[in-house]
What we know:
By secondary structure, the chain is mainly α. Helix content is 87%, strand content 0%. The protein starts with a helix and ends with a helix. It has a domain at 34-77. Helix 1 (2-22) packs antiparallel against helix 3 (44-76) and helix 2 crosses helix 3 (44-76). It has helices spanning 2-22, 30-42, 44-76. The relative contact order is 0.17.
Amino acid sequence: MAIALKILLVIVSIGLILVVLLQSGKSAGLSGSIAGGAEQIMGKTKARGVDALLNRLTVFLAVAFMLLTIVVVYVTH
Length: 77
């Protein structure tokens, strides 16, 4: 049980890192290249939709990360 929770925690952690890196910031890093391509193909509203989706996914993964961390600590001790 504890091993499965730890594996799930690692997967959620990697997902959270990736989603945060894909978000557009002030400098429009990695997400700028992806959203920029989507903006040319699908218009500007689609790029804003991608940013909104990434924001919601970040919140979901952050909450899942916190809850899983608490559960892993509780199960292992």
